[in-house]
Amino acid sequence: MMERLRKWMFSLQGKFILVASFCIFVFTLTGSLIIISREGKLYRQDFINQAKVLSEISRLMLTNVMVYNDLGMMDKQDVIDYFDYYIVNLMEQDKRIKYVAVIDDKGNILAHSNIAEFGHFCKDEHAIKTLSTLSTSIVESRFKDEPVINIATPLNISTKNWGALRIGLSTKEIQESINSLKKERVLIVLFFSAISLTIISIGAKVLSRPVIRLSSMMDGIKTHGDLEQQFPAFKDRRDEIGELQKSFLWMLQRLRDADREHKKTVEILGQTEKMVSIGRLASGVAHEINNPLSGITLCFKNLMEADLDDSTKDRLVQAVNDGLQKIKKIVEQLLDFSRMSVTEKTPVGINDFISRLLVLFNYPASKKEIKVVNDMSGNIPKILIDENKMAQVFMNILINALQAMDMGGTLTIRTRIDNGFCTISIGDTGIGIAPDVLPNIFDPFFTTKDVGEGTGLGLSVSKGIVEQHGGIIEVESTAGVGTTFIIKLPIT
Ligand SMILES: Nc1ncnc2c1ncn2[C@@H]1O[C@H](COP(=O)(O)OP(=O)(O)OP(=O)(O)O)[C@@H](O)[C@H]1O
Ligand SMILES: [Mg+2]
Asked: Which of 209, 267, 407, 414 allows an S-S link to 375, with CB 3.0 to 4.6 Å?
């Protein structure tokens, strides 16, 4: 599950959806917050304006009453009664008003929504300050656990001041409106983000589908390596994806052509190689059989002569026999090479088997001061092999190794179990094999040795025998460093 999520996140589609969602969410949220804060400010400004209008109207009414009092048209008690009546009326009309206080020019409270305050000196600095500044001012504070805006305004006409009026209006309501506006906006943002995301996801899927298809087609070619597989036709598109599809098809066609061309060349090369091998085989057979045959013919010619003594006759018959034996051996080897000869398999402990063969090499190895390193794994079960034939294989590889090394050097024999196969590697530190020679060493009659030293049948016969046993033979060699032959035989 986590793996699939990771894969999706790193896909083109996943990256696009994630970046788009992030942008939509962040930008719409930031935009909404900016709008909310602006709207909040407007709400507040509107509220303050309303408070100012209210205080201004009240100021005019109350100042009039003060003037009447000064002119003797109303006595002090009437003024106070009027103020009380006015305050009660005002508070009833507007529930946002939390208190109203009217003070005289000395700071004594003439009227107050809280009757207990009446007649006391006003302790509120904001109201007292208004008596000297003669200007309206606004401060914010809390009144009985509610946020309020306090507006203090002088009751004056020009420089004649009778006192001040202070009104406290609760901002709880607008605060609540701003909060619900915020909630509403966040919900709207979430809702539209979800819709946009759904549309983007569908769009991304639709847009990326052809690209994913192209990519899976390329993946298919990469995994199966089959350029010839047929793909369903693309829908004709006029956009960039259409161009990409066309380029892909063009590229695929080019690759197919190049691949066919390559296969043809390899086939021709293979044919040429085969012809070369057959030529080498034919001339090898001819050469190897011709030599003893010429000898045999010569012996026969001599035998035909009448006056031969018995010992000469015996010598000639022996020579004819030797020649025939040589031819027989070559024919037998060719049969092994072509895997036509019969094998008699018995269970054999491969370590013991190789150790017995190695005894034969102790003397020639010590003569050349070659160190033999035995690194045989102890847990190899018996495997089914034809001992005689397999002896031929190891003898040839060991002889080759000894021949490749001058004085000194190391011959390393290693046996291991590997993936159901018994692996036997024989490494030498000899002259190595040049890269241009390496592909030919398993060809019959291929030899780099001097005439009479090697027939060039050793490795080709060994390969045939190993393959007869269901195994494989490989070689790793670096010219001037050494060669290692690896034989893998199945453990049945
Ligand atoms: N261990 C080795 N180091 C270097 N070259 C090698 C080694 N083994 C094989 N070769 C090369 O591979 C050639 C073919 O080997 P192969 O055993 O088939 O024939 P040969 O040894 O030349 O003759 P034969 O085995 O018939 O006597 C050799 O002539 C030699 O050039
Ligand atoms: Mg050989």
From this structure: 414
> Which ligand 1 atom sits nearest the alpha carbon of residue 401?
1
Output the CA 121–ligand 2 centroid distance in Å. Answer: 128
Query: Measured between alpha carbons, how far is 303 from 314 in angstroms, rounded to an integer?
Result: 10
Instruction: Tell me the CATH number of domain 2-178, given options 3.40.50.1970, 3.30.450.40, 3.30.450.20, 2.60.40.1930.
Output: 3.30.450.20
| 431 ligand 1 Cβ < 6 A | yes
- pTM as predicted: 0.48
User: 128-137: long-range contacts at Cβ-Cβ below 8 A with a sequence spacing of 24 or more?
Assistant: 128/103, 128/164, 130/154, 130/164, 130/166, 131/103, 131/105, 131/107, 131/161, 131/163, 131/164, 134/159, 134/161, 136/52, 136/55, 136/56
Q: Which atom of ligand 1 is nearest to the CA of 437?
A: 31
Whose atoms come closest to the Cα of 453: which ligand? 1
- pLDDT per residue as tens digits for the range 341-378: 777 899 999 999 999 889 888 888 999 999 999 999 98
Per-residue pLDDT tens over the stretch 369-425: 999 999 999 889 999 999 888 988 999 999 999 999 999 999 999 999 988 899 999
Q: Residue whose CA is closest, atom 12 of ligand 1? A: 441
Q: Ligand 1 within 6 A of 80 CB?
A: no
For the structural domain made of 344-490, what CATH number should be given? Answer: 3.30.565.10
